[in-house]
Amino acid sequence: MAKLPGIFIVDPDPDARYQIQQLIPQTGFAVSGQSGLGTEAVAQVTEAGPDIILCGLKEPVARVVQTIESIAYALPETPIIVYADTADLDIIRKAMLAGARNFLESPLQPDQLKRAFSATLEAEERRHLRQANNSILGPHGAIITVFGAKGGIGKTTLAANLAVAFVRQAGQSCVLVDADDSFGDAAATLAVTPEQTLIDGLRELDNEGGDVRSCLSYHNSGLAIASAPEDPLQWRQVKANRFQEMLHQLARQFDVVLVDTAGTLGEVTQAALEAASLVLWLTTPDYASVRDSLQALRAVRSLGLADDRIRFVLNVTSPEFAVNPATIEDAIGMPLFWTISYDRLLRQSGLLGQAIVDAHPNSAAARQFSDLSRVLSGLPLVPRKAGLLSRVFSSRNGKAEKPEKLEETKGIEVGEEASA
Ligand SMILES: Nc1ncnc2c1ncn2[C@@H]1O[C@H](COP(=O)(O)OP(=O)(O)O)[C@@H](O)[C@H]1O
Ligand SMILES: [Mg+2]
Known about the structure:
This protein is α/β, with parallel strands linked by helices. It contains 16 helices and 13 strands. The strands form two sheets. The protein has an eight-stranded mixed sheet with strand order 8-9-7-10-6-11-12-13, with helices on both faces. The chain is elongated, with a radius of gyration of 23 Å. The two termini are 41 Å apart. Bound molecules: adenosine-5'-diphosphate (ADP) and magnesium ion. Magnesium ion binds at residues 155-156, 180, 185.
């Protein structure tokens, strides 16, 4: 039989350690050791090499936090879950900053422990996959900024649908940040009515012990959304460096922070580009859009954004477009990383406030969003029967090398669940 994953218990109180030790066998995990605080804990945990460390957050809190910090330093790969009988946000925040990955409220129940252990190991697995060099995102929360040099080219459509795909298809925790400082509509695209906006989140950031997450709204997929204020004038109070700090803070709490932007190069957009680990740069196949991209590319380069952080995404927003990806690549001088084909179901689900990955999971666009979320997460693609049209597009998606010309895609209307 395979060895059960091991849990190491750290708690200043020996009785508490004993009680938790009795619970662990009911969770399907095994106890790999236990200890009090301080250097003893660090030495014993290192010796035992557990899969997860469970640590009691109680008086003396400062010593517990110090112990968490030392263990996290010695074993950076091993997740630490803390438990406490108070949900005091300030104490939890200290533990998280010291290196804890999760918090449980005690008294602990076997079911609750089992769920937390499994979720933690799954998150760890994903982190490893990303670290294994086949993911663009990197081991920590990634900030992905969706940019494009104008409005109406599908930025919000891409941001919202990709965000839901990250949660549903790639199993990532994701927050969608609406940084469109003209008329942000990311929450509305997913029929989410926010109670608070990111302006409230920024205020929290300035409060001692405040948590940016209190401003988030949630989509039924579990996707978190930081909405734009309804009144665009409120953006005037936003300082670019505080906004960036908010993005970095969220990146410590979510696997993916996906930022939707306006089609201009204002201060907020610049801040979102600067903070990005990766920029998904959207263009449509028409001359005006490609020309605007070129101009914006020059501007963005002069701001110091390196080309290796940019991935071009071609979005075919109209069935009228004659698509020749090679010509577009020649014009922008960079390869196309991904293509979203024209799909009338995409427009339709947008109007109904649905994500296409939920409403029409077999449609061309839904597959392209799902595949993109998995490719960016370093996960293998889900195999499916390939029809002619999906082959034409998916054979290009994700490839950075210069592709051959695809004359046969000219003027073809793709999508419509053609190869479902
Ligand atoms: N690939 C596509 N196929 C069909 N319609 C699309 C596609 N991409 C975007 N659209 C539609 O184009 C319109 C503008 O998209 P939107 O995401 O709001 O653009 P932006 O955020 O760049 O202003 C929306 O009605 C959307 O449904
Ligand atoms: Mg938009």
